Amino acid sequence: MTDSSRPIRLALAGCGGIAQTHLEAIARVGRVKLEVIQDINPTAGEQAAAKYACRFTKNPDELFKDRNLDAVLVCTPPATHFEFVKKIVEAGKHVLCEKPFTTSLKDAEAIKKLSAKSGKLVMMASKFRFVSDVIEAKKFVESGVLGDIVLSEVIFCSVVNMERRWNADPGISGGGVLIDNGSHAVDVIRYLVGPIKSVYAQAGKRTQNIAVEDTARLHFETETNIIGMVDLSWSLYKHTANYVNLFGTRGTAEVGWSQSSIWDAGEKSSRVFGNGYKKLDAFVRQMEHFADCIQGKTAPILGIDDALESVRVIEAAYTSIREKKWLKVHP
Length: 331
Fold this sequence. Notes:
This protein is of the alpha/beta class and about 325 residues long. It folds into 2 domains: about 10-125 and about 280-295, Rossmann fold, CATH 3.40.50; about 130-280 and about 310-330, Dihydrodipicolinate Reductase, domain 2, CATH 3.30.360. About 35% of the residues lie in helices and about 25% in strands. The protein is built from 10 helices and 15 strands. The strands form 2 sheets. The protein has a 9-stranded mixed beta sheet. A 6-stranded parallel beta sheet has the order 3-2-1-4-5-6, sandwiched between helices. A hairpin with a 2-residue loop joins strand 11 (about 240-250) and strand 12. The longest helix is centred in the last third of the chain and has 20 residues, at about 305-325. It is globular, with a radius of gyration of 20 Å.
């Protein structure tokens, strides 16, 4: 636990695209003080350090050795996550690590052991758990207003040219759209309707000149026998305003990018709730929650087991693609 009378001293590792929203969020959380930004690219790192009034280093060892730091936010490419997180935890600091948490289940299990041994908090960043409309949808599920949930869908499809991006290099990313956007989708499913029991995954026709899948479909069944599907793509746009749909015996919740709605099957009427996907607001809530957990004010809503399970499900999905069959997530 960190003394709540002083700011949490934080470092950011990796200054790429996703880090920019994290930086904006950190600036809005008064009890978190950004001390240092680390990146192998001095241009990006120095510009961000100047903007957010902190120091810059190219050398990651400085983060591990700095005894004044309480925590590190890891936004480096996925293939680096295991070694980075391992060294941070061994250095006695808390970690918030971007998804995918690791590129292998073996690495995720090793981090879980390190976290337990050290007593340091290790969380995976998962912004959708902090989107207000998703939180409200979870309340609908828990209250029973939707009845028994029978079907669930997640849709993350858009057109993005990945041919010059590291996400399309399997040696860096660990895979394609399945591990990238699929990590978010799996965590949203687990958050809303519970643990995933089995999966069947397919890689779609590859339309971009890249070495990984640019479209994928994941069928799943939860421990409570809810069935569903996840559609993922960097190469097509599904014409739908919603990215999560929950179908129950008494109603349907549709979580959308601009607005969300709930359908009452008995009354045959719908009403709007929430105000859509507000990315920065979600990142601010995530950082506030991370700070609360470090200061011992609350338990993580996304603990190390959740991070590990996201990796386990995605690894099972890739095996399913290779073996062309349904697989149990826990064989």
